[in-house]
């Protein structure tokens, strides 16, 4: 019987196998046909500490037994209050306000709405958004608008709003900074960036001093700076936030993916008092007009509080450092790969000929190669990357790199 399920980012016409996963543990997934799969990509970048961390499981169970869901407009609950307070304490000042939503994409939509609301409420409406080439900010219409244009959104281009895209940093990045200086003169509302690592754009890295320079230009020009740390947050780049490495504090911060340790959907958009105060008024027309049915779902908030407990009580940064070191050693030992690179817990390289290319013809063969080896590696075209849960052991990491070495040999450019 064929399944009625329509999968995301899946070409059903290729009839690629879609395994049934029955359970998970740590860095492993287990399928209905009895295979143990190593999760080399943290189930699409969400699983930080490992699957089914006992404290997160316990928090979800306990909260589900007490309060499942409550409208969040005009009502509140303990898990959301605790989580918001602890996020404010954990994230850099002055990010003192926490707006909840359900996914990375919605956290970006909220950030954009905060930015435009800020300018309108101040009586100087601005709407232009600046972005970085190759950026990715989600698959909703606003997220796609501020992200890279390509085959994955060409059907929807007529819906997307125009943005000011800055060139990706080349060399020391002066090209990006010059473009940003020029663009800021036209009084845009905000710049949105993925700090230090452009994930879906192909695991492209740029240095902290450039991030700091971009932030400074925005601050000097009075342009809001939005950091989309949906992927880079929660230790992925070696520090809690990627912004930390540059000493950068954004005006608006987007977090999701690892916010619940990867167990359940939740997102936050954090903002400075200046942005919050621009919306606070006795005039209802000035409120932030955004909500979703499950805003700040108590079960999701409880999972996120448990994630924060893990960050407080367990040596998470040490695990991250160790994982980074291990990735660096293994990446350096690979032959026949292009542009091997490691940043924090993220390792990437290109296989076969040339640069990254999302529809590269070797893509499907590469994917099949990893499937055959029971590895959850999902190449982006011919870019292969490893971004595992922090708990992965050396044996599983070795198996991933053996798989990559075999792919590099098999698909070597002739
Ligand atoms: C994944 C991602 C998003 C979108 O998050 P979803 O939860 O998939 O909607 C947005 N921004 C960045 C940087 C991401 O990596």
Account of the protein in words:
This protein has 414 residues and is an alpha/beta fold. It has two domains: 12-52 and 315-410, Alpha-Beta Complex (Aspartate Aminotransferase, domain 1), CATH 3.90.1150; 56-313, Aspartate Aminotransferase, domain 2, CATH 3.40.640.10. It has twelve helices and 16 strands. The protein has helices spanning 42-45, 54-64, 78-90, 104-121, 141-145, 174-184, 208-221, 273-279, 298-313, 316-332, 363-372, 394-410, and strands spanning 21-25, 28-31, 36-39, 97-101, 129-132, 164-166, 190-193, 197-198, 204-205, 224-228, 252-255, 267-271, 337-343, 346-351, 375-376, 383-386. Strands 4-12-11-10-7-5-6 form a seven-stranded mixed beta sheet, with helices on both faces. Helix 2 (54-64) runs antiparallel to helix 9 and helix 3 runs parallel beside helix 9. It starts with 20 loop residues before the first strand and ends with a helix. The mean pLDDT is 96. It binds pyridoxal-5'-phosphate (PLP). Pyridoxal-5'-phosphate binds at residues 103-105, 108, 136-138, 194, 199-200, 228, 230-231, 256.
Jot down its keywords.
2 domains; Aspartate Aminotransferase, domain 1; 414 residues; 16 strands; 35% helix; single chain; 7-stranded mixed β-sheet; globular; alpha/beta; 4-stranded mixed β-sheet; Aspartate Aminotransferase, domain 2; binds pyridoxal-5'-phosphate
